[in-house]
């Protein structure tokens, strides 16, 4: 069974600080996706990383896929209250997505 | 493009009744649809995978006779929660995957909040 360990599960920081969320597995994934979910809504895709070592940037968000395609990180620079939400990583397995536990991020003004 | 809708967005029902949730791909043909359940403050848990015209494949621990899935067309899948009980109260999310989805990308619906009294 493929598992994704996401950490931290909860994070509350002040506006302007930087943070990193990690997603780790012992399994190799063909790709890994990061989602953001607002309360009462479905998850919205932020990025898909495919190649080992790949780095993608989305404004203040930087996503990295590990060289071995087993882990990934999301780094947010100068966090803002609008970044508050549930962040989910998901690895693409043979036939389905494997989701991490999620990181509930709160950015305090 | 790649929009997935769900109906209803929320539903409240009495214990023992059945509830049907629809998932539609609005602008593409979904060869595969997935149904997830999400409890408060938790991540998404895959319940089942359905391919158009085939029986759904259920994840371990999910009762197929309780959660009936029908994927009768390339744009519609339904999940029926039969004889619902309060413990079935949850946020149900579907996703759809098209024939040409790059990297097997799934497009998620907005979810359906089910409350069983």
Features of the shown structure:
heterodimer; A: 109 residues; six-stranded mixed beta sheet; five-stranded antiparallel beta sheet; 11 strands; 53% strand; globular; B: four-stranded antiparallel beta sheet
Structure write-up:
The complex is a heterodimer of chains A (109) and B (117). Chain A has no helices and eleven strands. By secondary structure, chain A is mainly β. The model of chain A has no long low-confidence stretch (mean pLDDT 94). With 117 residues, chain B is mostly beta strands. In chain B, strands 2, 4, 5, 6, 9, 10 and 11 form a seven-stranded mixed beta sheet that branches. In chain B, strands 1-3-8-7 form a four-stranded antiparallel beta sheet, with no helix packed on it. In chain B, strand 9 and strand 10 form a beta hairpin. Chain B is globular, with a radius of gyration of 13 Å. Chain B starts with a strand and ends with a strand. The model of chain B has no long low-confidence stretch (mean pLDDT 92).
Question: Can you summarize this structure?
Answer:
By secondary structure, chain A is mostly beta strands.
- Oligomerization category of the chains in this entry: heterodimer
The major β-sheet of chain A equals: 6 strands, mixed
> What is the H/E string of chain A?
EEEEEEEEEEE
Bulk shape of chain A: globular
Q: Helix- and strand-based class of chain A?
A: mainly beta
Largest interface: A-B, 23 and 22 residues
Distance between the termini of chain A: 41 Å
Tell me about the biggest sheet of chain B?
Answer: 7 strands, mixed
Strand content of chain A: over 45%
Structure annotation, total helices of chain B: 0
Rg from Cα of chain A: 13 Å
Radius of gyration over C-alpha positions of chain B, nearest whole angstrom: 13 Å
The residue ranges of chain A in which pLDDT falls below 50 over 5 or more consecutive positions are none
Mean pLDDT across every amino acid position of chain A: 94
By DSSP (H or I, 4+ residues per run), the number of helices of chain A equals 0
**E-strand count of chain B:** 11
* Overall number of strands of chain A: 11
Approximately what portion of the residues of chain B adopt beta-strand conformation? over 45%
Order of helices and strands of chain B: EEEEEEEEEEE
Which residues of chain B form runs of ≥5 with pLDDT under 50? none
């Amino acid at each position: 069974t493929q598992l994704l360990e996401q950490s931290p599960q909860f994070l509350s920081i002040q506006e302007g600080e930087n943070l990193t969320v990690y997603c780790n597995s012992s399994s190799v994934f063909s790709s890994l996706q990061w989602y953001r979910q607002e309360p009462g809504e479905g998850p919205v895709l932020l990025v898909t990383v495919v190649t080992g070592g790949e780095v993608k940037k989305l404004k203040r968000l930087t996503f990295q896929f590990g060289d071995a395609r087993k882990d990934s990180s999301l780094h947010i620079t100068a966090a803002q209250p609008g970044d508050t939400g549930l962040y989910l990583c998901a690895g693409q397995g043979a036939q389905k997505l494997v989701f991490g536990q999620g990181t509930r991020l709160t950015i305090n003004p | 493009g790649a929009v997935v809708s769900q109906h209803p967005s929320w539903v409240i029902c009495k214990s023992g009744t059945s509830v049907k949730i629809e998932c539609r791909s609005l602008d593409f043909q979904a060869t595969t649809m997935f149904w997830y359940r999400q409890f408060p403050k938790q991540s998404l848990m895959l319940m089942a995978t359905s391919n158009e015209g085939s029986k759904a494949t259920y994840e371990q621990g999910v009762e197929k006779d309780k959660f009936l899935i029908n994927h009768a067309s390339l744009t519609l899948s339904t999940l029926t929660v039969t004889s619902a009980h309060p413990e079935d109260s949850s946020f149900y999310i579907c996703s759809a995957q098209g024939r040409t989805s790059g990297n097997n990308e799934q497009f998620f619906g907005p979810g359906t909040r089910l409350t069983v009294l």
